[in-house]
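[User] I have long wanted to understand how a fold can be written as tokens. Those tokens are not coordinates but codes from a learned vocabulary of shapes. Could you go through the record with me and say what the backbone is doing? Thank you; the sequence and its tokens follow:
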Amino acid sequence: CFVYLFVCLYFAETHGITFRIQINVKELLDTDVLLKLLFHLPVNYPSILPDISVNSDQLTRAQCMDVKDKLLEQAKKHLSEPMVHDLILWIQQHLKYVIKQSATVCDEKTTLSSGTSTEDGIWMLLLHLDHMRAKAKYVKTVEKWASDLRLTGRLMFMGKIILILLQGDRSNIKEYLILQKTSKVDVDSSGKKCKEKMMSVLCETQVQSRHKRFQTFEVKEYSTLDELQKEFETAGLTTLFSEFVPPLLK
């Protein structure tokens, strides 16, 4: 009933190991479902839970998020012991039920999210990119990720400075970081697709009451540093600007 194909990409980092696994689940909802799983195992794994990203062309974004949440729930049961293989076997056997449950509670989640909002899980991320060779494609990719993960904020260009400011659920922020680090988003000097190797995380923190919540994700270009500074000030992020942006000009 279940046939799966592993296509793994391993690469060692000082922050741990990240790899991809593709699982083809047969005879589910009258179609094949290809799950694309990305596991980031931190240095202290399995004492620390892995970061997990889930994508599938056959599932909606909400369904992918539900699959991810269920995998993390299962991962907690295997804390301090190797778990990736067990998680793969579990989702093969339970994907049908996760999807059905997701459809059942979809309307309820929508009502709750529109009726009761909380700032407790809202985080902010500021990234600095060194360059974009394939700018149009890169920008389109960032916009898609932000939309898929329900993140708001700005992609900001000022001279040679490129900043990405994101706000959203902390788990989605983490998933964005995984995508940014592991996907081929740009091209190298020879024109070949490549991963982002010159990104730096300037700040990752919880949104405070004094901070303005961005309602959308926008791509903006600024002619002067003053214009860029006003963008931060309008969002209540003057300190963030002063601490991290001017040093980039040196």
Observations:
- DSSP finds six helices and eleven strands in the chain.
- The first strand starts at residue 11 and ends at 13.
